[in-house]
């Protein structure tokens, strides 16, 4: 059960203290307070955990400070959609709104290789009117002998250049808790010129200790990739780990599933699950055409498979596209063969726009049906 309090509740007020005292008297019920501090108002929610079936909804509604009471199903308590509730399906970070109703393209480098390529990439992103990008500094690789990313050494120039080109949010994978501090330190040292969306990759979807640590910081949003060999339910529970620790600025990333039945694509495309995740949870949903398709194969019309699956995901309501580009793919240190060319960026964005408009038309058509 969730008690949603009126906005801007004063934690020092007598009413609030009275509420907490009352909740403490409930047998077998534990409470967890979550405060979401926005620029204009703060929202307080109190999660009641335990035998909440015994509690009467109407009684709880009359408690001091309580505006609304939501009875939640056991699943995905924080991030799930529950019966009759109207909790937010969006959040804001560094001036950018991410929601189940928005769409952002994060075109960028799979892995940062050098300053020059970062600058060329960011300039192209800015010139095409975008404010988000992807930049991999910590790369989890199959082979221990493969390039592992430049790590913290590249962060200062990546962040400075992001500031120079008005990039507001960089999606960046982290694989260890120490990376979190390195990112925060580099952002601080460079004067916070940009924002970072922490990415948990598919190999770490169920790294619960990492999830807990990342979830405890509530400043930066998190892109959680679906685990490539586990059920959707298991991956959604992984997202819930982040939220249960306090961070609910979570985006769920579909990136394909590992199985030979997906051949000839690198992974079996799972973008049909975009509406499923939006139905089950309040998370915006990201699709990653690069890591799911993994090649520049095209159809007889010359359209890349990556662009087809992007269009399919966007047509189904995706809210974010994470996609690998590179100024010189043959020179890329990671995933060159699947990188799109910078000259293709405006074309890619236009193609995405066609699919987005078609999606919005589909929503409008459905609304007309009453
Ligand atoms: C990536 O986005 O760079 C990446 C490694 O993705 P995934 O974790 O989905 O393989
Ligand atoms: Mn990659």
Distance between the termini: 32 Å
As for the CATH topology of the largest domain, it is TIM Barrel
Task: Summarize model confidence as the mean pLDDT.
Answer: 95
Unreliable stretches? none
The set of bound ligands, ions and cofactors reads: phosphoenolpyruvate, manganese (II) ion
If you had to describe this structure to a student in words, what would you say it looks like?
A hairpin with a 4-residue loop joins β2 (29-37) and β3. The chain is an alpha/beta fold. The protein contains eleven helices and 15 strands.
Features:
9-stranded parallel beta sheet; 4-stranded antiparallel beta sheet; 33% helix; single chain; 370 residues; binds manganese (II) ion; alpha/beta; 20% strand; 2 domains; TIM Barrel; Alpha-Beta Plaits; 11 helices; binds phosphoenolpyruvate
Topology:
Blueprint: E1 2-5, H1 14-24, E2 29-37, E3 42-50, H2 57-61, E4 66-70, E5 90-93, E6 96-99, E7 104-108, H3 115-127, E8 132-134, H4 155-164, E9 169-173, H5 177-189, E10 195-200, H6 208-216, E11 222-225, H7 232-244, E12 250-254, H8 274-280, E13 285-287, H9 289-293, H10 305-315, E14 320-326, E15 340-341, H11 345-368
Parallel strand pairs: 7-14, 8-9, 9-10, 10-11, 11-12, 12-13, 13-14, 14-15
Antiparallel strand pairs: 1-3, 1-4, 2-3, 5-6
């Amino acid at each position: 059960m969730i008690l949603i309090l009126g906005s801007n509740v004063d934690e020092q007020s007598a009413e609030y203290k009275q509420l907490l005292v009352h909740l403490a008297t409930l047998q077998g019920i534990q409470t967890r307070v979550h405060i979401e501090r926005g620029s204009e108002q703060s929202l307080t929610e109190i999660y009641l955990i335990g035998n909440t079936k015994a509690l009467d909804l109407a009684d709880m509604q009359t408690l001091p400070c309580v505006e609304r009471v939501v009875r939640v199903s056991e699943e995905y308590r924080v991030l799930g959609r529950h019966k009759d509730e109207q909790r937010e399906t969006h959040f804001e970070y560094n001036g950018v709104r991410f929601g189940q109703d928005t769409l952002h393209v994060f075109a960028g480098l799979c892995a940062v290789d050098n300053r020059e390529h970062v600058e060329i990439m960011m300039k192209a992103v800015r010139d095409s009117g975008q404010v988000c990008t992807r930049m991999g500094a910590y790369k989890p690789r199959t082979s221990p002998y493969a390039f592992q990313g430049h790590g913290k050494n590249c962060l200062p120039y990546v962040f400075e250049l992001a500031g120079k080109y008005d990039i507001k949010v960089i999606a960046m994978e982290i694989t260890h808790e120490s990376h979190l501090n390195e990112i925060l330190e580099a952002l601080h040292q460079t004067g916070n010129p940009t924002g970072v969306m922490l990415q948990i990759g598919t190999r770490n979807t169920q790294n619960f200790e990492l999830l807990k640590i990342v979830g405890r910081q509530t400043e930066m949003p998190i892109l959680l990739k679906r685990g490539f060999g586990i059920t959707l339910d298991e991956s959604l529970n992984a997202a819930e780990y982040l939220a249960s620790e306090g961070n609910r600025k979570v985006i769920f990333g579909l990136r394909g599933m590992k199985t030979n039945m997906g051949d000839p694509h690198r992974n079996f495309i799972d973008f049909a699950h975009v509406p499923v995740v939006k139905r089950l949870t309040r998370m915006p949903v990201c699709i990653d055409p690069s890591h799911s398709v993994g090649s520049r194969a095209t159809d007889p019309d010359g359209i890349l498979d990556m662009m087809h699956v992007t269009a399919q995901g966007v047509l189904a309501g995706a809210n974010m596209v994470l996609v690998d580009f590179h100024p010189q793919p043959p020179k890329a240190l990671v995933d060159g063969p699947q990188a799109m060319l910078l000259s293709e960026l405006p074309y890619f964005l236009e193609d995405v726009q066609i699919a987005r408009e078609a999606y919005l038309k589909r929503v409008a058509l459905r609304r007309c049906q009453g």
